[in-house]
Amino acid sequence: MSGKKLAFLGLGVMGYPMAGHLARAGHDVTVYNRTGAKAEQWVSQHGGHLARTPEDAVAAAEVVMMCVGNDDDVRSVAGRALTTMQAGTTLVDHTTASAEVAREMHAVAKKRSVGFLDAPVSGGQAGAANGKLTIMVGGEADDYARAEPLLAHYARAVTLMGGPGSGQLTKMVNQICIAGLVQALAEGIDFATRSGLDAERVIDVISKGAAQSWQMENRAKTMIADKYDFGFAVDWMRKDLGICLAEARRNGTTLPVTAIVDQFYARVQQMGGGRWDTSSLLRALRAAKA
Questions:
Q1: Which of 82, 146, 165, 280 is most buried, taking the most CB atoms under 10 A from its CB?
Q2: In the CATH scheme, what is the code of domain 169-288?
Q3: What dotted CATH number matches 5-163?
Q4: From the candidates 171, 208, 221, 227, which is the catalytic residue?
Q5: Residues near 50 by Cβ (< 8 Å), separated by ≥ 6?
Q6: In 144-264, which ranges are E strands?
Q7: Does 221 participate in catalysis according to the annotation?
Q8: Residues 95-119: tens digit of each pLDDT
Q9: pLDDT of 114-163, one tens digit each?
Q10: Are 233 and 276 in contact (CB under 8 A)?
């Protein structure tokens, strides 16, 4: 598609490379980050423009992408951006946040004749860097049609899941499933090791059968090697699982495994592992049985 005027708000470990893909695709990108030095670094690497406020970043943008920390950040940054976004433009929020805040911001945007899509991503830092994210989107079809070709620059799959909040709800399902898988993988590796088996050989064999998963293919070897200094951090996962558990209380879902794994992650935090990769559940098992 022809180059468009875009803005990207939030240049963390996900947003930084995502915005880079847009610039490399030939779009005119203005970036904003709460820590200005990060935005300066991005501009020196990718070109484009730096803005010191969300309001300035989005003033001329046709489509705005955002990836910040939590519900409060979404309300703050999106709220400010919407004061200067022009009617007919679209704000795409890649933050993993609550469905409640997604519906809230959609309503605020609609009053200003601006489209709003909740579009959380899956695939981690590597997926963002390689342009291979999975994006689950909630919002209106017209806004989705306008944004989807742009999102495809850093995604392998982009899907409209339903109305406002549907993207966030789908991401919650994603995190619920991951939590159980990682705990099961940690328990399996620990069991294999304590049984005197070659854990890597065990994983090699069972990964060719029904136990295979993305977590097994991408995290098992580093777990066995006790390496957790990469990927999606425990602190972020606990934030996400808190969102899942809060939504479950609202809709009457029972999430017993998710609640237990959330507490296992709390143990990892108590061990000083808040920034370790989520696969560090194995370290908690090893510590408990040492």
A1: 280
A2: 1.10.1040.10
A3: 3.40.50.720
A4: 171
A5: 30, 31, 32, 36, 39, 40, 42, 43
A6: 155-162
A7: no
A8: 999 999 999 999 999 999 999 999 9
A9: 999 999 999 988 999 999 999 999 999 999 999 999 999 999 999 999 99
A10: yes
